[in-house]
Amino acid sequence: MTVAAPRIRMLIDGQFIESASSQWQNVVNPATQDVLAQVPFATPGEVDAAVASAKEAFKTWRKTPIGTRARIFLKYQQLIRENMSELAHILSAEQGKTVPDAEGDVFRGLEVVEHAAAIGNLQLGELANNVANGVDTYTLLQPLGVCAGITPFNFPAMIPLWMFPMAIATGNTFILKPSEQDPMVTMRLVELALEAGIPKGVLNVVHGGEDVVNAICDHPDIKAVSFVGSTRVGTHVYNRASLAGKRVQCMMGAKNHAVVLPDANKEQSLNAMVGAAFGAAGQRCMAASTLVLVGEAREWVPDLVAKAKTLKVSGGSVAGTDVGPVISCAARERVEGLIASGVEQGAKLVLDGRNPQVDGFEKGNFVGPTIFAGVKPGMRVYDEEIFGPVLVILEADTLEDAIALINANPNGNGTALFTQSGAAARKFQEDIDVGQVGINVPIPVPVPLFSFTGSRASKLGDLGPYGKQVVMFYTQTKTITSRWFDDETLGHGVNTTISL
Ligand code: NAD
């Protein structure tokens, strides 16, 4: 007898409910093809019900004391810590990344929850005393109302946690639309959020794809949308939701270049590059997927290949695995197609990871570490985001040439420089037109004391996720100018000039 896969529920008005939808999709373990669960594509009525609940809850949540809001996230961070191992195992099974890497995924989200617990220090207005006689001006950072978040498959814990904790901590209510490819760990995090004390209607979850996303973009009662995902979908969401009058922030695709100068510490730099190119099977928006070797560092390709060959490709649940599967059969075919295009277009395939032998996981979507040398702009492996364990190597004569190459690429998510020269590092950070820069740090994702600051084609909207910027994103600044009349500040008749 086969047991039906569990059906993933939605969260509407404080209740975990089964969707009435007739459209369901399997959530599949990418290492085994086992069906773990089924996820619904919510009906329009279910999206409306979630938004109506969030709109109603906003009436009281917006006035809930800031300390009460903060304490929920204090409790929430504790619950996430206590359940870390379970969360990481759920995540690894549905997404494919290794269990230690899955813990990192949860941990980077947990840091944002900790930050949300400090909301009392963050959501502060300003006051200028005596801007005119007896007049003060001050600001309130007020929540917007119902906000929504649409998340990608590659960080199913961290990215939902980029969004709803800070939105809710600042006094908004929230509709989350997780990736339909791996919604299970997200739902476990949502259960823990309710356990921490998030009240009914303040957090809602609807599942689905294009139609649900479009319904969110169009809904007149949603005030702001946060999106993380591909450039194609993010551009659509930005345009559609902006047209509907919403505040929108979209973090999108990337092609992150790492530059290695010949004075870099060779061992450290190559280790960092291999980890940052192939970790999470290259499915990180900040993966160092493009290497620019400058001058004599061009000779380091064989050593890099030798290191990449030592990585163990296997299921994410197997101890010692370095590279797990890619998310789906379709993703594997896309990555393999791009590798074939690189060969056709004349790049030198110095390490071919296609069709690796993975004992015990013969049905998995595996692509082993793959490296192309001699890559040039105009080749698809350079022009497109591969989002798999494929590193492309370009060459430059000088640091200036490397900077010009990177600045000519449309993407601006992240970049890194490996060097022991302070002067070179300073030149790079000054002249590079990329929003997040690592100096001997391959994946420079800022902690939540700062904000995620991808730029150019990797981002639409002014303000980034988490940190100081997201407090501005999820609030409207209201400026109050006030005068209180007493015996000393009584007015002196009508004044029609522009002074206070
Ligand atoms: P995706 O764009 O396919 O999906 C993202 C979300 O959009 C999902 O919730 C999905 O259901 C929804 N969606 C998919 N197709 C849609 C459509 N046609 N219309 C409306 N909604 C649609 O992205 P993905 O494959 O899940 O994630 C990988 C991408 O995300 C990569 O490009 C990666 O670089 C990017 N990413 C960027 C960042 C960042 O911070 N810049 C972080 C993580 C991932």
From TrEMBL:
NCBIfam families, A to Z: MMSDH
Keyword Oxidoreductase recorded: yes
UniProt record similarity statement: Belongs to the aldehyde dehydrogenase family.
EC number(s) stated in the UniProt entry for this protein: 1.2.1.27
GO molecular function: methylmalonate-semialdehyde dehydrogenase (acylating, NAD) activity
CDD domains referenced in this protein's UniProt entry, alphabetically: ALDH_F6_MMSDH (cd07085)
Protein known as: methylmalonate-semialdehyde dehydrogenase (CoA acylating)
UniProt organism field: Stenotrophomonas rhizophila
InterPro entries: Ald_DH/histidinol_DH, Ald_DH_C, Ald_DH_CS_CYS, Ald_DH_N, Aldehyde_DH_dom, MeMal-semiAld_DH
GO biological process: L-valine catabolic process; thymine catabolic process
Keywords, comma-separated and alphabetical: NAD, Oxidoreductase
Superkingdom in the source lineage: Bacteria
PROSITE patterns xref list: ALDEHYDE_DEHYDR_CYS
Location of the Aldehyde dehydrogenase domain: 17-480
Name of the gene encoding the protein in the UniProt record: mmsA
One Pfam family this sequence matches: Aldedh
